[in-house]
Backbone:
């Protein structure tokens, strides 16, 4: 991915733990690496096909001057989020915020915080077999659309499927969606659980009936396993109610462990 650099943009702002820092202010140096695709701009000599680093510099300056935070970590996090949400074509940003006048009572060159944040692709499976099944699924989609830092890209058709796992219950309505998100996996999972609670989801029986079930199937090409979250979803390749709707919207998404596309996994399951 191509990069545009802004190095040591000097800004006078009022961030810091001490009251004097919030009132008197001090100098900060901000550096940013903007990850984007510049080939189209380079071939056409058209600035609208790239990122205007002058406008970005003024955005950074305005943000730093208009807000007051105690921690450099907060400044960096909020600024990165604003840039990713508001700058077209920006896929990822690396920010370093330096504080050369940090009041620690010792001689130093600078204190700084550096973070890297960007857009991620997630595939989410949805299911419901209680009450207004379609209404619950649509609610899940709309709540994700309203979630800050989340953008739903595509949603499959809903399909009727038999229950999975051997528990006697009504048929499910299932589907999948793809989305871009700024949330890391654990925070995305927390948000999915919040949406399930909005649908009065009760977790009493494993693989039992539910008003709304939301699962992370893929997150980029990430492979991770914790007591509460496994990515890719550990049994997705065995479930036609996941593979059929997922194949509708992302047939060529590659499973990072099995090294098969969604379409190939579906054919193998059949």
Residues:
């Amino acid at each position: 991915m191509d990069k545009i650099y802004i190095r040591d943009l000097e800004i006078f702002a009022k961030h810091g733990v001490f009251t004097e820092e919030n009132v008197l202010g001090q100098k900060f140096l901000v550096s940013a690496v903007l990850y984007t695709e510049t080939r189209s701009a380079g071939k056409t000599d058209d600035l609208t096909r790239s990122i205007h680093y002058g406008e970005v510099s003024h955005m950074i300056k305005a943000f730093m001057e208009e807000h007051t935070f105690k921690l450099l970590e907060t400044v960096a996090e909020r600024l990165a989020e604003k840039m990713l949400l508001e700058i077209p074509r920006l896929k990822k940003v690396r920010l370093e915020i330096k504080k050369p006048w940090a009041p620690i009572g010792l001689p130093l060159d600078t204190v700084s915080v550096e973070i890297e944040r960007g857009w991620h692709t997630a595939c989410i499976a949805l299911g419901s077999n209680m009450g207004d099944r379609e209404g619950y699924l649509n609610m899940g989609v709309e709540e994700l659309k309203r979630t800050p830092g989340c953008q739903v890209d595509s949603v499959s058709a809903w399909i009727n499927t038999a229950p999975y796992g051997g528990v006697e219950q009504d048929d499910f309505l299932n589907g999948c969606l793809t989305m871009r998100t700024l949330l890391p996996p654990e925070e995305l999972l927390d948000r999915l659980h919040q949406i399930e609670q909005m649908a009065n989801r009760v977790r009493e029986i494993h693989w039992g009936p539910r008003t709304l079930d939301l699962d992370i199937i893929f997150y980029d090409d990430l492979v991770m396993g914790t007591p509460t979250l496994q990515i890719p979803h550990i049994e997705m390749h065995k479930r036609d109610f996941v593979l059929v709707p997922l194949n509708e919207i992302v047939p060529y998404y590659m499973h990072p462990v099995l090294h098969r596309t969604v379409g190939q996994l579906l054919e193998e399951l059949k």
User: Anything to note?
Assistant: The first strand starts at residue 2 and ends at 13. The helical segments are 19-24, 39-44, 53-66, 72-86, 133-146, 185-198, 240-249, 262-269. Residues 72-86 form the longest helix (15 residues).
